[in-house]
Amino acid sequence: MNAVATRFGLNRDGNRRLRQLVTPEGLALPLTIASRSARAGALLIDLGIIFLSLIAFIVVLGAVGIELAGIDANASAGGAMEFVGVLLILLLFLARYGYFLWFELGPRGATPGKRMLGIRVAARDGGRLSAEAVIARNLIRDVEVFLPTFLLLGGASSMGVAGGAAALWLAIFVLFPFFNKDALRAGDLVAGTWVVEAQTARLPEAMSVSPDRSRDYRFGEAELAIYGERELQVLEGVLRQDNAETMREVMDTICGKIGWTPGQGDEREFLEAFYAALRAHLERGMRLGRRKADKHTGA
Amino acid sequence: MALALFKTPEITPPADIEAASLRSDRFRLEREVDWQRLERIVSLLEKNRPRRINDEDLLELPVLYRKAASSLAVARETSLDAATLAYLESLVRRAWFQVYGPRMGMLGWLRRFLGGSWSASVRDIWLDICIALAVMVAGTLVGWLLVARDSEWYYALVPGEMGGGRQPGADRAALMETLEPTQSAEGLTVFATYLFSNNTGVCIMAFALGFCFGIPTLLLLVHNMAVLGAMMWLFAGAGLEWEFAAWLSVHGTTELFAILLSGAAGLHVGRSMAFPGDASILAAASASGKRAAQVMAGCTIMLVIAGLLEGYARQLVPTATGRASIGAVMLAFWIAYFCLMPRPRDHAQDRGDSDEAQP
């Protein structure tokens, strides 16, 4: 069991996407591989953005073109039309190759779609994400995203055997992320990158700054020995949510466990006091090298 | 003081550190000013507005980063405050991405790239360039020989729209006609842009297909060059080989060179995956992928130039000698640039560690 857990990178919570990254300071930073669905979603958002802005641009260009044709039909308009044509071709080119490149080279390492879903590109070896890596992963994207799209739009069936072979060949690229545990696509493999979650967390209030109630509620060693770290975290979540009904329920459960009779109207005070006492107890154990993961592990 | 309006609000230290009853919370309250300061710097860096960070903060960024990192290490061992741990992990990760993020902007990268990094990468894949060149020559020969044996092959190789009057049996005058320049420069810009966009697509495909051990890249090269071979046979049959070669060389020396490089780049990735040597397949693939990406970025530049030459120079210069000399000069320029440009000091020498630039 243990071997299997290591092989799939399972952590305590059974999260298969958790990885450790060791920084040059020797600190192990947990990273979560972005889920395949998040990446597909980000890609769809990006393609949507590209598509919509292209349409908007073409509408504007078309309006300009009609305007030009209306003003006069002589030589000067010809030059302008040529310019519009060049602009259009360059724009299509940039939309296909430049969009992803530009955004992923930025300090966030993410396209707008990726940013919306809280994921970013990172170097797999823990080093710096170099410009070459971003270029490489986005050149391969051509075969993974754009060619299959064109093939689908163009109708592979009309090409017969060659179309089928091409579809099969491209399917290898498209399905590549489903056949490795890091959800790498072919471009990631070649560039030495991966896509990880990059949510920003806010610093919440400290828990124990509310008035000290250790005199009103006294918990004994035996009462505190029941629960472990996981229960403490659940209690922390309950207190931060500050929902009266949940707190009542949790208080009843705790009182039932430790053999107290729950009072009325002092749920928050009781839970805060219990949280502080339990955390102090568990942290004292931690400093002495004793950890208690949850209520099922022995002290 | 006039700028006070744009200043971000000051970070206020927590009111009463001693009020916290837990030791781990006191630890946190004592340090959270530094964390928030780091967070503010990191947020500005993420928004790409480094100018708004004052010098004091910028100088202290590495210190603040190390402080936060060590706080995280201590907190992991002493604190059970899950929310604070999550915050610290996210903060250190964000700061790590910025501290070890790309140091160069687009412009700095471009300067280094043109100033030798590109040439060095091209020289690094010399073996693949030789292979790709051999394959391209072989492809041309195959095209020539196939068509010489049976001219029906010509129709199989050259797509209809590309023929445009160039077909077996056409007389010398008709063939000469296709090599004539156009009369005016009108429409050439669009043509040049179109050529660039189209050719770059082909090159990127040649590179991207190299992923599967390079075989599709080779096929693509052979096929494209067979078309060329077939056309050469056609024009040589009419005694126009010099004119055709000159017509082709204006942009062809640059364009075929770019196709050669992109094919070689694809091959390089494919070859290093098939024969990774001492490194793991993943490490070998990413090292060669980055090197090949440099070559590919350069190919785009070459194709812009090729598109301009094809769109303008070829259509405007009528004589075969003039065309051939433009082509020869371009070829000489590229070869000299790739061979003579010195390697930038921080460009990685060996295969396998191209990602370790100077800190």
Automatic annotation (TrEMBL), chain A:
Query: What is this protein called in UniProt?
Result: RDD family protein
Record carries keyword ATP-binding: no
Principal localisation: membrane
Keywords attached to this entry? Membrane, Transmembrane, Transmembrane helix
Q: Where in the cell is it found?
A: Membrane
Q: Does the keyword Transmembrane apply?
A: yes
Membrane-spanning residues where? 49-71, 83-102, 150-176
Q: Where is the RDD domain?
A: 34-192
Q: Which organism is it from?
A: Alteraurantiacibacter aestuarii
InterPro entries given in the database record: RDD
A GO CC term assigned to this protein in UniProt: membrane
* Membrane topology (UniProt): Multi-pass membrane protein
From TrEMBL, chain B:
UniProt keyword Mitochondrion, yes or no: no
Coiled-coil portions: none
InterPro entries with a match to the protein in the record = SpoIIM-like
Answer whether the UniProt record assigns the keyword tRNA processing to this protein.
no
Q: What does the UniProt keyword field contain?
A: Membrane, Transmembrane, Transmembrane helix
Q: Where are the transmembrane segments?
A: 125-147, 218-236, 295-312, 324-341
Question: Highest taxon of the source?
Answer: Bacteria
Q: What is this protein called?
A: Stage II sporulation protein M
What species does this protein belong to?
Alteraurantiacibacter aestuarii
